[in-house]
Every structure is written in structure tokens, then in C-alpha cells.
Amino acid sequence: MSETMLAIGLKRNAKGIQEAQIPIPKITKPTEALIKIKETGICGTDFNMIKYDSKDIAEGEDFITLGHEVIGTVEKIGSEVKTLKEGDLVTATVRRSCGICNPCLHSQSDMCMTGLFKERGIHKLHGFLTKYVVDEEEYVVKVPKELEKYGVFIEPLSIAEKGIEQIKIIQSRMPWSCAHPKHRFEEEEWGHCKTALVIGAGPIGFLATCLLRLGGVNTYVVEIVDEASLKIQLAKELGAQYIDARNKKPEDIVNLCCNVGTLDIIFEASGASDLAISLIPYMSRSSIYVMTGIPKGEKHTIFDAHAILRQIVRHNQVIVGSVNSNRNHFVMAINDIKRINKKFNNILDEAITHRFTLSQYKEIFDLKEKDRIKIVVGID
Ligand code: BGC
Questions:
Q1: Are 176 and 195 in contact (CB under 8 A)?
Q2: Ligand 1 atom nearest 123 alpha carbon
Q3: Is 323 close to ligand 1, i.e. is its CB under 6 Å away?
């Protein structure tokens, strides 16, 4: 009889968060590693999957373990694993290759073209709200020991890294930065001559703001919470300014951050689709809008399609969606965690708003959105 472990997730025939006993995974291929999970982070996607009862459980199974942000230690390795050893502190990426398309075959499953990818804790694969996981070496990323307590930030930061990377790749199409030699994309101070609006101050908005501020971008954060809330205090500690979007029209929001024609970047991290679309007309010429929030449910908004199309064409604007992240973004995130904490006085410690143990799972998912930034679940 195989041994089992407690896992927290969603059941095919039941609504709401559930617990289950699932088999402890075993190494079955020489290229795999067994990881003992220390901590798992919880994000908006987990809350939404529960709220909207949206689950993509593997065929033949009745349960999917939630959780896609992880830090753990390697407990065992297969005979062909080269870069990992027992005791290594590690995290793991989320998406697993479809095995068919070129991006997936070249370690960029975040850009999968068939849609047949799987995602840990989200699409068809068990996630990390449990004790053990077995994964292929190529998806396991080593983490320096001193970053253990920030391990659950690596995955969400990798999402922000990919978004910022898109900005740099796309805007390298022209001399976008000013003439200052330190404001080129390769330089740490790449953003000093730019203004950005970040929509949403949840985990991704916060981490995107960290990266924009690291680059020196003049950053404004748009939210619908009181100025005294922790989310906004953290944004301010990063040197960003707050725009409370409550009772404001899009033009009022933009007027608070810049003059017409000087809004270089919009980073959408809220999934508030009405607001997201209504801000498109305020992008400046040759500017870029990165969207990372994924709204659920339906929303029908009327907007002036002609005007938007005309403007995007005439002003060379780019609106780009950015989902998931690959190993390179994880490595970038690991480096930037150190830089963020150094520059902003260990701000990531403050961003951990809640700590729970696995058995307290019901309490976690009762938390209200306005109160939470990063939730950490201790597993071992
Ligand atoms: C995760 C991504 C994932 C996306 C869509 C996000 O919460 O961070 O890795 O691709 O959800 O499933």
C-alpha cells in the first residue's frame, strides 16, 4: 500500500476548498528530483479558483492540489540529475511543456503555442499545498540559503520580471530611453526618464512596482483602498505615489500622474477590465501597456473601438499580454529579491501579511482581499 500525505485543493464534485489524502510521489525517471516542501505561497489565482469554482483536474483524477509558489529542499535525486544534490534549497516553475510547440521545446513553455501545457496547482497537475513533489530537474531552480524566507516571492516576482522584460524587448525597437548613458535598458537605472502607472497593489502590482522603482521609473500605483492600508504604505516605501481610483474617471487618474503624452508604461496587475480598457486612450505615443491580471466571469463594456484602433496605429502603441514565466525569469527574480531588500530596507518582510500552517487552510481562504498581500503556508 502506498503512503499518503495531506493535500489541500479542489475536488471535482464539490465546491470550496477541500482536503484529501494523495499518494506521496516517488521518483520514476532518472532525471527527476523529490522535493520536501517547506513553504507554499498563496496568490489571487488560488482565491479565484475557489471563488469561481474553476478547476482543471487531470483526467482520471478527482482532485487537484492548489498552490504554485514554493520553497523546499531536495530530498532525493534520480541517477541522471546533474545540477541538484540532496539538501539543496529549491523552488520550481509552474508550467510544464506541451512537448509539441517550438517555444515549449526550447524551455519557453510560458509562450506555449498549443495551449496543451499543464500548470502545477492550476491546470491538470498537483500543486504545492502538500508535503512532497517530484519534478524534472529542468523545472527545479536552486535558491541561495539566505533567501529561504523569501522563497515564495520568487514565482510571483518572476511574473513581474517577465512583464518588465516584455517592455524592454518591445521598446528596444526604437531609441526609447533618453540620451543619458545610464538610462539604457542594460543599465540598472534604465527607467529614470520614464513614468509608469501600475494598476493594482496586490502581490503582482507590488512586485512590479518594486522592479520599476529599482529601475528608477517614476511610478504611480492605482488602487481602490484607503491610503492608510498596508498595500499603499508599501508602495510609498518604494517611492511610488498613490492614486485612489475611487470616484475618479480615467482622465482624472492620468492627470494625477502626468501630462498628456508622458505616460510611458502601464502595468496592469488587477484584472479590473473596465479600468484597464478605459486607460488605453491615455497611453502616450510609442508607449507600452503590459497586461498581467486575468479577470474571471463576464463583463461587457462599451468603448469607442474606432478611436482606440486609430490611436494604437497612429501612435505605434503596443498592448501586450504576459502570462506565466520561465526558468530565466525565476533566476532574474532570485537576483532581484536581494536588490529589492537591499534598496528598500527589507520591504519583502513587511509584505508577508499572513502565516498559516497547512491544517489551517480554511482560515486562509476566508481572508479578505484588501487585507492580504503575501500569505505563507508553513508545510514542514
Ligand atoms: C501564475 C502563473 C500562471 C497563471 C495562469 C498565475 O497565478 O502565477 O504561473 O501561468 O496564473 O494560470
A1: no
A2: 12
A3: yes
